[in-house]
Design goal:
The chain is globular. The chain has one domain: MFS general substrate transporter like domains (Growth Hormone, Chain: A, Up-down Bundle), CATH 1.20.1250.20. By secondary structure, it is an all-alpha fold. The chain contains 18 helices and no strands. Helix 7 crosses helix 8 and helix 13 runs antiparallel to helix 14.
């Protein structure tokens, strides 16, 4: 007993530091991978004019590419549910990066519109795994006070990936828009190699420092609980047959999960549509050279999500993380403010006013999205968090995949010199999330009340027994 206490007092701080370093290392690797796989989105939206002219397609057909990506993400989300606990996460992520690079190379080979739409859909398949894995991993291993900020930081790095795509297209895509995809593919090949030579333990749920490999099983169990705050419910049981029907039945019976899923679909879908069409919108607005559009988009993409991180860091002082009861009603207020700025984007006539409205929208939108994604993951049992978020991701794509096509249809139908009507029409959908978020806040508060009653009852029973 004395020996165990000595081990715990002397070695635990060191182990804590090591595990914390591993955690930040893995988080950094994951967001770099996620942002790199968004480079192609930046290239595609930046080269929208050249692509439409070269392939001789209208706005509706151009919007079909984004919808194809959504279909790919739907397929990949369901595949992730099936193989999540059966395949090494390291090699699953490596395979997705490598295949993404191979599909990008295909853009250099052909200009057939139908084939390119299929390829763009396959890109969506390979992008989904990191997008699902990171938020679930943060919820399981993140510090309770930093979870919301870390999820928001994912949006910042995704924006950085799109910015890199714009810069690649600006430097290499002037003569041929396909050159940008070739450069992006090379970057991903290098990244897949770096991922392949990384230690398997960095991608495992049960991370143990090298100094801990030789300790006995009893101490290993104790250390896993103290360092990673895992319980027996969190551990994957090998060779256990999973009842997916029972898992989905549990998810569908949870009103918090359903409401947050629908709200997340609206919020996330609109930001995806805006990222896809915004460079084209700016090009119509300022009627200037491509460089000015790229600079404007870069400025907005950096300041918006980065402002969201700072705002979330400030907000958590008052409401805590997304697991807090205080977070229920502020989401409604934040979504209302974001909706007002979103609608105003299409009504502005100057570049400065559009930039200000878009930045403010991104700041509040990223805050709302981070809170909703956290609620989606945390409102279900930890054993179901990966399945729940993967299914939520699929539903988000189903509900919001048609938005880029609708934007293109409105532009093609009314043949306007400036697509303000399409932007206002799409962004006004933000208002639909407000009544749903009100219902979500009511259900959350009701759930917290029930939990408090149970705790009080348990405490009273303990006092009576004493």
């Amino acid at each position: 007993m004395k020996n165990e206490n000595t081990i715990k007092s002397k070695e635990s701080p060191k182990r804590m530091r090591l595990s914390r370093c591993y955690r930040y290392f893995l988080f950094f690797i994951m967001i770099i991978i996620d942002s790199s796989m968004d480079i192609s989105n930046g290239i595609f939206s930046s080269a929208s004019k050249e692509i439409k002219n070269k392939l001789k397609i209208n706005n509706t057909k151009f919007g079909t590419f984004s919808t194809a990506t959504s279909i790919g993400k739907i397929v990949s989300s369901f595949l992730f549910i099936l193989i999540n606990q059966k395949i090494s996460r390291k090699w699953l992520i490596c395979t997705c990066i490598f295949l993404n690079a191979m599909f990008l190379f295909c853009f250099k080979i052909t200009e057939n519109v139908r084939i390119l739409i299929v390829i763009y859909g396959l890109l969506g398949v390979t992008k989904t795994v990191p997008g699902i894995y990171i938020p679930v991993w943060i919820n399981q291993f993140g510090h309770s006070e930093h979870k919301t900020v870390e999820i928001t930081s994912i949006l910042l790095f995704q924006s950085i990936g799109k910015i890199i795509g714009h810069l690649i297209n600006l430097m290499f895509g002037r003569k041929n828009w396909q050159n940008g995809f070739l450069i992006a593919g090379i970057i991903l090949i290098i990244l897949s190699f770096c991922c392949a030579i990384s230690n398997e333990e960095y991608f495992s749920r049960n991370l143990f420092p090298k100094e801990m490999q030789n300790i006995d099983n009893e101490n290993k169990k104790r250390i896993s609980c103290t360092i990673f705050e895992e319980t027996n419910e969190d551990k994957i049981i090998d060779n256990k047959e999973i009842d997916y029907g029972a898992e989905f039945a549990i998810l569908f019976k949870n009103p918090l999960y359903i409401l947050s899923l629908i709200c997340g679909s609206i919020v996330r879908g609109l930001i995806t549509c805006l990222n896809y069409w915004f460079p084209d919108f700016l090009r119509h607005l300022i009627q200037k050279q491509h460089l000015k559009v790229t600079i404007s988009f870069t400025f907005i993409s950096l300041i918006g999500p980065f402002g969201g991180i700072i705002f979330n860091g400030y907000l958590k002082r008052y409401i805590g993380s997304y697991e807090s009861r205080k977070a229920s009603w502020p989401i409604v207020v934040l979504q209302f403010i974001a909706s007002m700025f979103a609608i105003s984007i299409g009504l502005m006539n100057s570049l400065i006013s559009v930039c200000i409205s878009t930045i403010c929208y991104l700041i509040f939108n990223s805050s709302v999205l981070a809170l909703i994604q956290g609620i989606i993951i945390s409102c279900v049992d930890k054993n179901l968090s990966a399945t729940g978020f993967a299914f939520a991701n699929a539903c988000m794509q189903i509900l919001t995949g048609p938005l880029p096509i609708i934007y293109g249809l409105i532009n093609d139908k009314y043949k306007m010199t400036h697509p303000w009507l399409a932007m206002c029409s799409i962004m006004s959908i933000n208002l639909l999330a407000i009544p749903l978020l009100i219902c979500l806040a009511i259900f959350r508060n009701k759930k917290f009340d029930e939990e408090e009653k149970i705790k009080r009852k348990d405490n009273e029973e303990e006092l009576i027994e004493k």
